[in-house]
User: Which sequence fits this backbone?
């Protein structure tokens, strides 16, 4: 979509030449948040107290247990943190009672995890548990791996296709250009979500988690490259005529070398910005598909597939903590949007906003 | 104008053929089909299934089936839904209205709120209201549709103020015309908020940028120098020009809304084209999938066309009869 004129970035550049401080710190915070999330995902087996599939059959739909800090004199004997255990009082309605007199001490850096119960026979649910008694926090941490990498992989593939098509169309021109741009138009005229639904149905059942992930990410990239291709083609048609590119050609550089060394690098500013702003779209797309039961399947988890439980009025009413993955998705999206905005100010001031 | 419309409509034909063929191909690639699930049903005899397969042209080569579907579609017959045993046109007709009402309501809310708000924050640039609204806009833009839907559904469950699904109440048929409209609006409220939020936030930001940009334009300075009141400058000169790109945007917005509506319908239990499509995909109901994709694309293309025509009316510099260079 076209942003009229320079928009926000135009305003910022013309007044100060550099983005004002508030944008810098917002971008700094966003960067830190993203770094934190990706670190958590990378260290998932260590940070999550349990395996994502581990079931505590006696504690289905348990509410979150808040962490308590022990009094300093008890630190040596009982550790820093503890939770109160829950006892099921109504197994039909899944109602729990917190036993405030008993403390379950937690141990840091024990048994190869960040935080676990000191006694291995006890358990704690930081964010509650699901209907099978699986720890939501652990599942969330493992789900971050799928959701966060999905965005990056999707953007790499779709921008890769987009750059390839855009550069070829823009540089070669003529009939090739016409043909490729017609193809882009078809892709962009697709009702993408409907199409994605149809595509997701093609995924045969019984694939491994990794195979499903790859298939979904490829399908989604396949739908989304056209927008990138059009912008890059537009850039390449003007870059092609720039003096330094013509100079390179005049000096005898071949077509491939000219493209790789002189044309593609000139589009990098746009590519980086577009990538940052497109990642949330992929994460949201995956979440939406998984939420509807067409994406990531058990035993693998993603934030979207965890939210599938929330797509049920009873669950939503009685176990509101199952919305936690949605909070994670929202935070990630926001961080990428802020960061992309800042990057655009810096790298690509006159760019179009693609939303 | 007539020629322009004709040309655009003709251009849509290859696009639609491309889209439908692609979807036909994809649905055909899906493992298993509707009949394999029927075969598991002991109350249906194998002969009956054979009969059905025959009537659906099962087993013929793909291009042939596509061609026969296409000829039928051109005649307004989108085939039979295998799962519902009703013609696809009827099914889509029942659902399309709900989706259209929802999309148009969301579009209206988006525009009627986003444009004034965008103007306000552009005029009050740098003030507290600008900062707060801009931040809210950013939050709204980043909040996933489905998550907002869950939050509002939970609100509805907690308070009981809003219905948690459906487009009308159970007793809709027995209501008086006035209460019928109220009932629809009541059901429409939450889905519309969900759909409008994300679009509104980005539109508001774009509007703000456009106005700030135009306020530095030469013709605006001239208008001010002439001694025109700031109001007149803002509404007659700045806003008038800032609006033009947004008319094109509205056409594209329709596509986003359609996709968004599909998700919101499924999450919020509404009977619309999107939820129909989801059911069809899950049941591998090929003609229903094809029909939904076709109608969806058609709405999208028509939306873009409508936006171009509206733009020509709003911006006299645009001459539609001139041949369009790409």
Assistant:
């Amino acid at each position: 979509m076209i942003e009229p004129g320079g928009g926000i970035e135009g305003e910022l550049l013309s007044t100060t030449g550099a983005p004002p401080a508030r944008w810098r710190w917002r971008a700094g915070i966003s960067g830190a948040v993203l770094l934190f999330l990706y670190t958590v995902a990378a260290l998932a087996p260590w940070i999550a107290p349990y395996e994502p599939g581990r079931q505590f059959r006696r504690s289905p739909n348990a509410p979150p247990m808040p962490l308590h800090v022990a009094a300093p004199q008890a630190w040596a004997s009982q550790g820093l943190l503890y939770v109160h255990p829950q006892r099921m009082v109504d197994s039909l309605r899944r109602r729990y009672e917190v036993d405030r007199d008993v403390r379950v001490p937690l141990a840091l850096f024990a048994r190869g995890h960040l935080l676990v119960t000191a006694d291995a026979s006890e358990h704690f649910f930081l964010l509650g548990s699901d209907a099978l008694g699986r720890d939501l926090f652990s599942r969330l941490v493992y789900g971050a791996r799928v959701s966060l990498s999905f965005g990056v992989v999707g953007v790499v593939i779709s921008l890769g296709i987009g750059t390839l098509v855009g550069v070829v169309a823009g540089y070669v021109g003529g009939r090739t250009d016409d043909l490729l741009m017609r193809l882009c138009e078809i892709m962009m005229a697709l009702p993408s979500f409907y199409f994605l639904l149809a595509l997701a149905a093609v995924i045969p059942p019984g694939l491994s988690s990794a195979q499903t992930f790859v298939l979904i990410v490829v399908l989604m990239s396949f739908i989304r490259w056209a927008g990138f291709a059009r912008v890059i083609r537009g850039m390449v048609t003007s870059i092609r005529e720039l003096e330094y590119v013509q100079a390179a050609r005049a000096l005898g550089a071949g077509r491939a070398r000219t493209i790789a060394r002189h044309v593609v690098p000139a589009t990098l500013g746009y590519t980086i910005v577009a990538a940052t702003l497109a990642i949330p779209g992929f994460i949201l797309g995956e979440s939406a598909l998984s939420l509807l039961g067409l994406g990531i399947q058990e035993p693998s988890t993603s934030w979207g597939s965890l939210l599938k439980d929330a797509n049920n009025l009873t669950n939503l009413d009685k176990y509101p903590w199952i919305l936690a993955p949605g909070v994670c998705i929202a935070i990630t999206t926001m961080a990428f949007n802020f960061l992309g905005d800042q990057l655009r100010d810096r790298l690509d001031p006159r760019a179009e906003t693609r939303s | 104008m007539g020629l322009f419309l004709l040309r655009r409509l003709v251009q849509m034909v290859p696009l639609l053929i491309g889209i439908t063929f692609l979807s036909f191909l994809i649905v055909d690639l899906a493992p298993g089909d509707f009949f394999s699930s029927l075969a598991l049903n002991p109350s249906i005899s194998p002969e009956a299934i054979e009969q059905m397969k025959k009537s659906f042209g099962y087993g013929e080569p793909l291009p042939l089936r596509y061609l026969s579907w296409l000829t039928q579609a051109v005649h307004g017959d989108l085939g039979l839904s295998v799962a519902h045993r009703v013609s696809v046109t009827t099914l889509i007709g029942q659902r399309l209205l709900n989706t259209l009402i929802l999309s148009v309501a969301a579009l209206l809310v988006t525009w009627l709120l986003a444009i004034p708000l965008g103007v306000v924050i552009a005029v009050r640039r740098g003030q507290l209201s600008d900062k707060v609204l801009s931040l809210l806009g950013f939050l709204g833009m980043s909040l996933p549709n489905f998550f907002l839907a869950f939050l509002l559904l939970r609100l509805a469950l907690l308070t009981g103020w809003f219905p948690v699904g459906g487009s009308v109440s159970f007793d809709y048929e027995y209501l008086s015309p006035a209460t019928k409209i109220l009932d629809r609006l009541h059901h429409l409220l939450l889905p519309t908020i969900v759909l409008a939020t994300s679009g509104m936030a980005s539109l508001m930001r774009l509007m703000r940028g456009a106005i700030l940009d135009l306020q530095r334009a030469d013709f605006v300075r001239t208008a001010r120098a002439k001694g025109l009141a700031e109001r007149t400058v803002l509404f007659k000169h700045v806003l008038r020009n800032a609006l033009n790109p947004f008319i094109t945007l509205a056409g594209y917005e329709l596509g986003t809304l359609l996709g968004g509506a599909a998700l919101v319908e499924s999450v919020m239990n509404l009977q619309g084209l999107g939820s129909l499509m989801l059911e069809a995909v899950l049941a591998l109901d090929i003609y229903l999938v094809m029909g939904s994709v076709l109608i969806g694309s058609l709405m999208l293309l028509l939306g873009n066309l409508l936006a171009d025509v509206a733009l020509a009316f709003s911006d006299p510099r645009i001459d539609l009869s001139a041949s369009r260079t790409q």
